Fold this protein.
Amino acid sequence: MYHAKFITDIYQNLFERQCLWFGIGFVILLICRYIPWKKLINLSPYLYLINVILLILVLFIGDSVNGSKAWIDLKYFSFQPSELMKFSLALYLAHFCSQKKLHNLKEEIMFLFKGFFIVLIPSILVFLEPDTGAILFYFLMSLILLWNSPIKKRWFFFISFLIFSVLLGFFYCYFYQKDLLITLIGTSFFYRVDRLLNLGVGMQIENAKIALGSAPLIRFSITETGIYIPESPTDFAFALTSNVFGFLGNVVILLCFFLIDCFLLSLCQKERKKSKKLFFLAFLTSFISNQVINIAMNLGLFPIIGVPLPFISYGGSSTIVLFLFLGFLFPSKKERKEKD
């Protein structure tokens, strides 16, 4: 009884705080709709630079949680700059990819190098925290935006070949030359990779699969019915819904995500501004990937890299950044009048 009451109190506290983040997020969404897109896109290099400074700052004064130094303590709440960088990076890359007109090979190479360093700088800083999940989304967004940029598609075959060659060499060393790999990348990084590659291993994964596999058709019990899953309100939110709402709860969540994704994709197709369309594509890449990866993590099909389930997982920074994206994606009153 004491254990059940303790869990109930924790979840109630998290639920109340998450409601607060949703309230703040809605206010931010409404405010953002009055900010002209042209002004925002022109400010994107400065917003990106400010976010890079925040990522540097967090390495020195950030709070450490579960071995990751990724949060800045603002007394009443903690703020995660790596989440905000998703917004800043998407905005800056959308601006960068939409205004370039490439006329020769030299311009194409310079364009690729600049785009590479725009993504590399925050990725290195976030890697030092470490936050593997955020880095993955930075690269996914950049690939989607570069694919839709003026650069010729032949470069992607070259990039794909380079990535494949590096991964092939890495995995050869990982399986057959571990001592050499540890010498090259260091013990700490090697064991981080080792943990990521051991899929389906550990109490978190085992308990998450038990929760998903043994869930009844319908249930409502905030005490998790005795199945304990570490980090369930964040990384294992999908498994938590099985404990709380049963199999039907998971079905409803998947249906809601499907409808939201279809609605956002339809809005993206209607968007005419090049920079805003690219920004939309970057958000959709991050938003849909979050859903797929989080659910795959819960099923033991993907490494645990700290990826939240949008709108479901607890987290102030990730929730507010979602609303920040949506605030600039939905057409403002002025834009609707111009269309009419």
Remarks:
- The chain has one domain: 2-152+198-339.
